[in-house]
């Protein structure tokens, strides 16, 4: 039976008709509000994750944990030639904290937040590359899961960069902070 032929008892309109009516009346407004909530929540979550990861990079445990990933990377392995395991980890932590700070100022300085979003994208692309440069990464489900989460963080960074670009362009056109 096709769901379009199903009606509610007592001659009431179908549920799908009611939903369609609500969407026609409120869809655009609700969509904009939902998008704003999702953008703000995504940015706040990304900032919180970057701050947490960034500060954790100052611990010996995390410095040792990332060493096999970083040392096998053609993009980052060279850092161990100029710094110790702890120093390199701290440098990564400082970078994550700076990116978080740039993202956090979106409301006041969208150009700075755009830079933070782009830096986050580059950072997460680099860490995603560890899945291909770290021996046995694809055969270790725990490590692979750890790295795959960076795909979502890359997407959040891209969304944040896009929103900041839109806000910076709006400000440049109008002189008004959106």
TrEMBL record:
The keyword RNA-binding does not apply. Signal peptide: none annotated. The chain crosses the membrane at residues 34-58, 78-105, 112-131, 151-169. One of its GO terms (biological process) is response to hypochlorite. GO terms for cellular component: plasma membrane. PANTHER family: INNER MEMBRANE PROTEIN RCLC (PTHR40106:SF1). This is DUF417 family protein. The lineage of its organism: Bacteria, Pseudomonadati, Myxococcota, Polyangia, Polyangiales.
């Amino acid at each position: 039976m096709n769901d379009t032929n199903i009606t509610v008892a007592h001659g009431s309109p179908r549920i799908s008709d009611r939903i369609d009516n609500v969407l026609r009346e409120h869809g655009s407004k609700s969509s904009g509000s939902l998008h704003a909530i999702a953008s703000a929540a995504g940015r706040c979550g990304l900032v919180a994750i970057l701050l947490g990861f960034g500060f954790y990079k100052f611990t010996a445990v995390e410095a040792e944990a990332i060493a096999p990933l970083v040392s096998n990377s053609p993009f980052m392995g060279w850092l161990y030639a100029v710094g110790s395991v702890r120093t390199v980890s701290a440098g990564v932590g400082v970078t994550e904290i700076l990116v978080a700070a740039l993202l956090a100022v979106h409301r006041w300085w969208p150009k700075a937040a755009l830079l933070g979003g782009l830096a986050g994208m580059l950072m997460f692309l680099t860490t995603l590359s560890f899945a291909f440069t770290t021996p046995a990464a694809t055969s270790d489900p725990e490590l692979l899961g750890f790295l795959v989460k960076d795909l979502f963080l890359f997407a959040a960074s891209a969304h944040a960069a896009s929103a900041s670009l839109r806000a910076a362009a709006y400000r440049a056109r109008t002189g008004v902070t959106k």
